[in-house]
């Protein structure tokens, strides 16, 4: 009987215990607070917000550039405020899950750009009565 080959019950139990430990660690890495799944969700949110902010900033900068390029060629009826208002209105909507809203600026009141993600306000920007645009300090990352 000494020459029989095979695994012992103890070796099998140790192997199962090691596999259970590895499975527990893997599950914790996937689902914990700093797990892969949570990090992916956080990265998707940050990307959507950054894309929305970039879209607004790009459109405003393009409108300002076009305004200054045409200011001497036109009769002056187009104002910087109108150019910026029109540019931001073109951005209103949903961008990768982030919703862009705009309260239009007028000659007497500043405009406000609001970006929300899943119903939570995550960034705001202000259009001055002169047509300049800035992101509010609390929304800078």
Distance between the termini: 72 Å
Largest sheet: 5 strands, antiparallel
What's the total number of strands? 5
Question: Mean of the pLDDT scores?
Answer: 86
Query: Which descriptor suits the 3D outline?
Result: rod-shaped
Q: Strands across the major sheet, in which order?
A: 1-2-3-4-5
| Strand residue content | 15-25%
Q: Note the total helix count.
A: 3
What is the succession of H and E elements? HHHEEEEE
Going by helix content, strand content and strand pairing, the class is: alpha+beta
Whole-number total of structural domains? 1
Low-confidence region ranges: none
Share of helical residues: 40-55%
Q: What is the gyration radius calculated from CA atoms?
A: 28 Å
Supply database-style keywords.
rod-shaped
Overview of this structure, please?
This protein has 141 residues and is α+β, with helices and mostly antiparallel strands. It has one domain. It is 48% helix and 19% strand. It has 3 helices and 5 strands. A 5-stranded antiparallel beta sheet has the order 1-2-3-4-5. Helix 2 packs antiparallel against helix 3. The longest helix is centred in the middle third of the chain and has 35 residues. The N and C termini lie far apart (72 Å).
